[in-house]
């Protein structure tokens, strides 16, 4: 790596099936281009000779199947070449999925066989789940499929801000700079960065999302044949494991890809052995995956929220909106004021309906909270509705009874009802 501020241009020659692993510095982007040969970033081919500007903090690899020369301009945190990667095994998985998509496409009238592969990627934190999901989607899109990407990782999602589960069709290989296109994602708001804050709500939302996709698939032969790739959380013990089984069942996954953990693979293989239509496949973790500690994860979350309001390249200008307390209809889902233990019969546990809707008056705790704007038309629909977007509470004035919030656009919000959880953001 080079000292900060250096702009020395250098070339890296990659042999076939090797990759250049790079961590971009936190303070400056890196320019990079393909000079010779062919290469890809997480499944998306690089255009020849065109400079790409990779944003700060990004960790990525440029992989070549046949050999390539890469040119870099700018400092990096680290960059090195690796000749051992699991890419061959990953692309073999892609080939199997591709064959299944072709088979599905060839029998459009049969509701069973017309379903393409439903792939779920599981494994511990930092095993490369998001990256493998991305590669499988980009390789499929390159061949003209439009697979659906489902992201169940509410801690570090790649479709929208944290605290959500979401799905979106992938129509083109994912751009290494722009990421997942955000035209019309289907988003459900959990409101917390871990499901343990309300496990039942998480399950309810997973079910809702699965049902909506099922309906879309029923009417769309093309996306049905392309199937889906589902990314999951790195929480694989205890309740986390239950949630994986729940997701596998709810989405009727047919291929379970287990990254980097023998034990999880053998457990899943065992519980799923009666399901003859489900393949449980063990895959090696890439040595290039960069581990992130709690602090790095927290930072990445804050960064995602910032990106939502200000754009990936600081190219959006959110609006500051002032509203009366009485204009806001805010709800919280689950938990809430329970009967005190002293008011219950001896031995009884206070019951909190995890999906109960609780109206919230404006109070100090809302400051710096990120709220979701629900598509619900009635309060009863809030739990089962997807969300249009998010606002961020920046000021509360109890004298004038006014709330100031940041919104991606000026004008009326796309829905009347707001959902709060525990998702906060502090502008750095
Ligand atoms: P989590 O469970 O936290 O969601 P994950 O298992 O999904 O993590 P990824 O997000 O895929 O892991 O990878 C972690 C980080 O490592 C990402 O920043 C990713 O870009 C980077 N990374 C993955 N593979 C490589 C590679 N071969 N070379 C360089 N960086 C990589």
UniProtKB/TrEMBL annotation:
The UniProt entry, under InterPro entries, shows:
Clp1, Clp1/Grc3, Clp1_C, Clp1_C_sf, Clp1_N, Clp1_N_sf, CLP1_P, P-loop_NTPase
Q: Which SUPFAM superfamilies match?
A: P-loop containing nucleoside triphosphate hydrolases
GO cellular component annotations, sorted alphabetically?
mRNA cleavage factor complex
Q: Which GO terms describe its biological process?
A: mRNA 3'-end processing; tRNA splicing, via endonucleolytic cleavage and ligation
Q: Which Gene3D superfamilies match?
A: Clp1, DNA binding domain, P-loop containing nucleotide triphosphate hydrolases, Pre-mRNA cleavage complex subunit Clp1, C-terminal domain
**Single GO MF descriptor:** ATP binding
Domain Clp1 P-loop span(s) in chain numbering: 123-311
Subcellular localization is given as: Nucleus
Residues reported to bind ATP = 19, 59, 126-131
Q: Which coarse location class describes where this protein primarily resides?
A: nucleus
In the record, which residues are listed under signal peptide? none
Pfam families given for it? Clp1 (PF06807), CLP1_N (PF16573), CLP1_P (PF16575)
In what residue span(s) does the Clp1 C-terminal domain sit? Answer: 316-427
* Entry keywords, A to Z: ATP-binding, mRNA processing, Nucleotide-binding, Nucleus
Q: Where is this region: Disordered?
A: 101-123
Where do the Clp1 N-terminal domain residues begin and end?
13-104
Q: Where are the transmembrane segments?
A: none
Q: What exactly does this protein do?
A: Required for endonucleolytic cleavage during polyadenylation-dependent pre-mRNA 3'-end formation.
Family membership noted in the UniProt record: Belongs to the Clp1 family. Clp1 subfamily.
Q: What is this protein called?
A: Protein CLP1 homolog
């Amino acid at each position: 790596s080079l000292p900060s501020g250096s702009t020395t241009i250098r070339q890296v020659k990659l042999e076939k099936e090797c990759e250049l692993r790079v961590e971009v510095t936190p303070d400056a982007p890196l320019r990079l281009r393909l000079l010779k040969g062919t290469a890809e970033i997480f499944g998306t081919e690089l255009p020849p000779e065109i400079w790409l500007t990779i944003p700060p903090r990004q960790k990525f690899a440029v992989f070549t199947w046949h050999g390539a020369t890469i040119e870099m301009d700018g400092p990096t945190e680290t960059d090195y070449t690796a000749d051992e990667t699991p890419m061959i095994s990953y692309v073999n998985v892609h080939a199997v999925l591709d064959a299944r998509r072709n088979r599905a496409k060839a029998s459009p009238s049969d509701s069973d066989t017309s379903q393409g592969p439903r792939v779920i990627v599981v494994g511990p934190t930092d095993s490369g789940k998001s990256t493998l999901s991305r590669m499988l989607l980009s390789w499929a899109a390159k061949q003209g499929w439009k697979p659906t990407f489902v992201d169940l990782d509410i801690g570090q999602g790649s479709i929208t801000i944290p605290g959500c589960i979401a799905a979106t069709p992938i129509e083109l290989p994912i751009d290494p700079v722009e990421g997942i296109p955000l035209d019309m994602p289907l988003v459900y708001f959990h409101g917390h960065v871990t499901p343990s804050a309300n496990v039942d709500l998480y399950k309810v939302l997973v079910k809702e999302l699965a049902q909506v996709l099922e309906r879309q698939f029923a009417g769309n032969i093309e996306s049905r044949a392309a199937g889906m790739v589902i990314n999951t959380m790195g929480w694989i013990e205890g309740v986390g494991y239950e949630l994986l089984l729940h997701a596998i069942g709810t989405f009727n996954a047919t291929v379970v890809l287990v990254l980097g953990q023998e034990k999880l693979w053998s457990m899943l293989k065992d519980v799923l052995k009666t399901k003859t239509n489900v393949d449980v496949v063990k895959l090696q973790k890439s040595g290039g995956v960069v581990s992130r500690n709690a602090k790095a994860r927290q930072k990445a979350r804050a960064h995602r929220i910032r990106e939502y309001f200000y754009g990936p390249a600081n190219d959006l200008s959110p609006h500051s909106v002032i509203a009366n307390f009485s204009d806001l209809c805010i709800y919280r889902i689950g938990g809430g004021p329970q009967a005190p233990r002293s008011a219950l019969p001896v031995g009884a546990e206070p019951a909190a309906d995890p999906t109960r809707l609780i109206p919230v008056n404006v109070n100090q705790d809302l400051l710096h909270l990120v709220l979701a704007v629900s598509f619900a038309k009635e309060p009863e629909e809030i739990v089962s509705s997807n969300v249009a977007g998010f606002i961020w509470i920046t000021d509360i004035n109890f004298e004038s009874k006014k709330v100031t919030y940041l919104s991606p656009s000026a004008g009326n919000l796309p829905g009347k009802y707001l959902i709060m959880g525990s998702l906060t953001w502090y502008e750095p």
